[in-house]
């Protein structure tokens, strides 16, 4: 069949293009603009080329933040994905308790980031917080404002509390889509619990789990609000994630050029890792098929 | 292999069943003889699958007992019962190869590798999938997947019974015939007790030694295909088996005559006084059109189905079917029907009444 060519069709795409330019392309270009120029205020700009990028790449501070960021994402993925699956497997499949669990599980997802941070900030305080005070009084040395390890434990536990539900809900949706006949056939075939998981449940959940992992990776890699509210990036720089560092640089020190260069690299890293994730996972999927 | 005894068995999906209507499976006593091939025939929703799932242990009955030989297995888990079951829709393990799928039930029981390989090859030959053993099960067509399911059901030799829950629904018609023949062959060869659930009478009649007809949660007749055809014990059996089904005509019985609207039909046997809803049942095969003999009918329509003609007619306000030979000439003045007295059955409240000669 011959393809119909009609250039008027472009008009139909125009609204979307306008929308996307204003919401994404133009703001991004502003950042690009800052990243290659230097300014001393008064709207006077001087061409700087790739200088800011070179400077940022040479800076240890950014590499340290990147290292912490990767470590953080790795830890929470390693906890939230298996835990989410485990929770989903143990949720009641139907009836009142199923709905009850679903509502209960959704609650943390409905709380604004800022509030989650505040809740844990207070919860963990040694003087008035239930968690901090209890730990302190049973003799465990816990102080997230001074101890690096305690600070990390706090923000990791907080993220697990906040987001495991998302993984669990997605996994649950995957589990619900498995027809009863599969479980019945597995019983007839005398498959063990582990084999039922490995050969029936996991393959059927693979699709949604991929989405869950991708979402959790992107979100955790961009995390800002909660650790900022709880630890403010401290003690020292111990919990300064990439976006906390970025905000410090851009708004705290007003180094717009380096911050813009930083942003662009940050954006590219997320894009790259997400792409790698997606490609590897869809390939895995295809190879299994 | 085992003889399976159902003792006072009944099942309801409700927690506290009250009346009999609450039971999906009404009280039932039956013995499935060791090594026989049974078909469980009935319309959708009549309790066939419920009964099957109770036998395989996927469902716990509300009351009664199930015995395998002399062992009570009512509360035994599926695994202990050593049953194979094939479901209506294909169940395959997508991420495994066809070979691993077929080997799965054997490996789960810790069978030796050589034995597994040998059995898998035998079964693959039987279902015609030798070429595909090494590919993944995902992405196969529905009938290929169902063949794998069938293969998994047949791979174990020592099963107590083989249960099939409408296994050929998704299979192409020509393949259906072939697989059914193979199942039958398998039965003749190994003599497993087989229970085959279906709503397709052809399937039931060709597969089984004995057909169990279910209607509304109740077993209405157990018999050979011939018995079901000649003497349906319940009007449902008459109507469900046969194409078209048995004609059921409201009548009044006096001795060996059935009165329909004042006219009468001769019966081969005499009957006493009957209570309730009284009807006579005649298969279309035993009704004959003629110009002179019998009672008046209005012919509505004649359908030529190839090997015979089906005459749809109105008989004193009841729709009846008459089967005429392909070469029989049917003329406009053939407006009378006669029934073969030996094949007229009498029913009271849907159950057949035996006459006295």
UniProtKB/TrEMBL annotation, chain A:
Species of provenance: Pseudooceanicola pacificus
Keywords of the record: Membrane, Transmembrane, Transmembrane helix, Transport
Pfam families for this protein: BPD_transp_1
Family: Belongs to the binding-protein-dependent transport system permease family.
Chain ranges passing through the membrane: 12-36, 70-89, 101-123, 149-175, 196-218, 259-280
Keyword Transmembrane: yes
Bilayer topology annotation: Multi-pass membrane protein
Keyword Heme tagged: no
Protein name, as recorded: ABC transporter permease subunit
Record GO biological process: transmembrane transport
Major site of localization recorded for this protein: membrane
Automatic annotation (TrEMBL), chain B:
MF terms in GO: ABC-type ferric iron transporter activity; ATP binding; ATP hydrolysis activity
Domain named ABC transporter: residues: 4-241
InterPro entries, alphabetized: AAA+_ATPase, ABC_transporter-like_ATP-bd, ABC_transpr_FbpC, ABC_transpr_MalK/UgpC-like, Mo/tungstate-bd_C_term_dom, NA-bd_OB-fold, OB_MalK-like, P-loop_NTPase
Cell membrane is among the record's keywords: yes
Pfam families: ABC_tran, OB_MalK
Coiled-coil regions, chain positions: none
One CC-aspect GO term: ATP-binding cassette (ABC) transporter complex, substrate-binding subunit-containing
Record keywords: ATP-binding, Cell membrane, Membrane, Nucleotide-binding, Transport
Family under the similarity heading: Belongs to the ABC transporter superfamily.
Name by which UniProt lists this protein: ATP-binding cassette domain-containing protein
Organism: Pseudooceanicola pacificus
